[in-house]
Amino acid sequence: MQGTAQPTSQPTAYTPTDRTVPTRSAERASYDKELVHAILDEAYVCHLGFVRDGRPVVLPTLFARVGERLYVHGSTGSRPLRMTGTQDAGLPVCLTVTHVDALILARSAFHHSINYRSVVVHGTAHDVRDPEEKRAALDALVDHVVAGRAADSRPANKKELAATAVIRLDLDEVSAKLRTGGVNDEPEDLDLPHWAGVVPLRKGYELPLPDADLTPGIELPDYLAAR
What we know:
The structure is a single chain. By secondary structure, the protein is of the alpha+beta class. The protein has a single domain (about 25-210, about 220-225), classed as Roll (Pnp Oxidase, Chain A), CATH 2.30.110.10. About 20% of the residues lie in helices and about 35% in strands. The protein is built from five helices and nine strands. It has helices at about 35-40, 80-85, 130-145, 160, 220-225, and strands at about 30, 45-50, 55-65, 70-75, 90-105, 115-125, 165-170, 175-180, 195-200. Strands 2-3-4-7-6-5 form a six-stranded antiparallel barrel. The radius of gyration is 22 Å and the shape is globular. The N and C termini lie far apart (about 55 Å).
């Protein structure tokens, strides 16, 4: 009798490549998918790099992750989205995000640093042309900024959809890099008369300010009040 087929387990890490292995401080690199996803999901802005007319271009923009795929949006007139839409083979890109968690103040100028978490994604971006995928991607982009917001706002109409382009980038060649811990001064500098230590940085919402034209009686949504 044939045995019951077992479900294939999904890999928990990305495969390192020549482009995702750092040449410096390689011990800080990680390919763990859960860690990569967490760093991406916490970031609001990514930087998208590509080559235009033989020169490098890097643009900050909003993005969202859906499973093992990233979506980036912008105007149909923006350079990378226009280039992606005219190239069936896609546009080679490099996408990065970075969180600065703390400032590291050392006794020596050389050992000043930051604690950070970053992700670098290499791949080929493609224009999203399927209407349903595009709508789902735009909902994901809105919810990435504030979870639950897509269902609490008017969806894009046909005119707005026509003016908006979305590109997708699969998570394939990916790496995370982190710096944690404290000061790494030289032993001979420990008695110097300079303050040294870690200055943690924090991120969060301030008190939301209602729009001046907000209809009376509309209360602050729970997804904002809870932050």
